[in-house]
Design goal:
The protein is an alpha/beta fold. The protein has 13 helices and eight strands. The chain is 49% helix and 15% strand. The longest helix is centred in the last third of the chain and has 20 residues.
Length: 271
């Protein structure tokens, strides 16, 4: 899936499947290709990754038809530009709560190469792109995907304004931070959490904006919200899957052999 296909799928409501990878090993590319994933989520908020690794991963995944979406720690236009220069298809920033933050990302994803006062006038609505320049900017940014993380009560309260931002392609819900901000930490079955999730999904889909989530603990929860309109499904994290699978296998072996001790129960990864 390329950027144009990803944008079309987000807005139309067609489901998109991906996962989060933290490993920079080149051995992952064949695995991802065999899984027929649409996109890969690369997180630089919680996972340290240098620009060299990020760049070759973005371009290698793009080469096998898997769109790389990169999360940056905050809404910084310059960091977002660097992500696109590295080869990312889409950018998302953590903990978005204001229009100003969304505009920082919009300027990088949809309005390059505009800068300075001209860019500020476009963002504020004081002026608008017309004629050749409008065509040039649209072509320059073709296939660049703009997503924002929704992870707090203020973000939900500002959701109508955020969804009205021109060029926004999708929302990405952070369930761990959202549950904490709601005052029900990691209580993903709590009525308040469920109500907030459904509110975000319904408002996004009513505006033909894509909406995704990473990372719900149970598959059943993912299915339920997908049936309600969630269409960007980023399931699991490579390191979590490795830890759980190995923990399960070693526990069975140790029990069969009468050995005791070892790893304790594993907590959910909240990246």
């Amino acid at each position: 899936m390329d950027g144009k296909e990803l944008i079309e799928a987000l807005h139309s409501g067609r489901r998109i499947y991906g996962t989060l990878l933290t490993s920079c090993s080149p051995l992952w590319f064949k695995v991802v290709e065999q899984l027929k994933l649409d996109c890969i989520f690369l997180d630089t908020e919680h996972n340290k990754m240098d620009w060299h690794d990020l760049g070759w991963m973005c371009r290698a995944y793009t080469a096998i038809g898997v769109a790389p979406i990169v999360r940056i720690p905050e809404a910084d236009a310059y960091e977002a530009c660097r992500v696109f220069d590295a080869g990312a298809t889409g950018v998302v920033a953590a903990y978005i709560e204001t229009l100003e933050q969304v505009d920082q990302l919009r300027s990088a994803a949809k309005l390059r190469p505009l800068k300075g006062k001209k860019l500020a006038q476009i963002l504020s609505g004081e002026s608008k792109l017309e004629g050749e320049m409008a065509d040039y900017v649209a072509k320059y940014n073709e296939g660049h995907v703009l997503l924002v993380n929704i992870e707090s009560v203020p973000a939900v309260e500002a959701l109508d304004e955020i969804l009205a931002v021109p060029g926004l392609d999708g929302l990405l819900i952070g369930p761990h931070d959202l549950s904490c901000n709601l005052g029900v930490p990691e209580q993903y079955d709590h009525p308040l959490f469920e109500k907030t999730m459904l509110t975000i999904i319904s408002k996004a889909r009513a505006k033909n904006i894509g909406v995704g989530c990473h990372n719900l603990p149970r598959v059943e929860q993912e299915i339920r919200y997908a049936k309600a309109g969630l269409n960007l499904i980023l399931r699991q994290i490579d390191r979590t899957l490795f830890a759980r699978a190995l923990h399960e296998d070693l526990t069975k072996i140790k029990q069969a052999l009468g050995d005791v001790g070892g790893a304790k129960g594993l907590a959910d990864d909240v990246a």
